[in-house]
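Next up, a chain.

===
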Amino acid sequence: MGRRFSSLADEEFNRLFTEFKFTAYRLEALQRYDVSYEQDEFARFLSGESRGEFPGIAEWIDGTVAKAVAAGKILSRVHVVELPMSDYVRFECAWAYEHTVEAGEDVRILPVSRQEWPPELPHYDYWLFDSTQLVAMYYEEDGSFSSAEIIDDPRRVVEANHWRDVAQASAVPYREFAHTHLDQPRVSG
């Protein structure tokens, strides 16, 4: 295997988001992520407050999405979302995706019933840069980041490309999903 990153702030890990030439794709599998840069905002969301400043997402939009889009690059993701949505996914949709889509990120949602994961997709997160560089993302059960690893195995890179194609073909654009699903009853998590 390749290089392992133990922090999302690792300089080499973050260079992946500036040095890709054409595409950066993310498959998201979790229904809750617990990352430090959004804990305060998630708590505000749960208490019913309005969005306001969100430095973590602002940094992603200004530092990554806007620069990539201006350079003609494509940032896209598919989040496999179990219905009914967890509170965290509702937060991510309203306070993050709504704004990253506006900035030019192609966010798609693949809705599934709880406990009915699409059999043709993995149940883990990854980034795929320029269809050639695979970075597996590992999380603890509570959604906290554990590590990321560059995967050098060509078979796994090809497999990740296939999963990307399947997920994108099955998912709906974020705004279409939001229009039909953001009024659903809340589920904790």
In short: The longest strand covers residues 74-83.
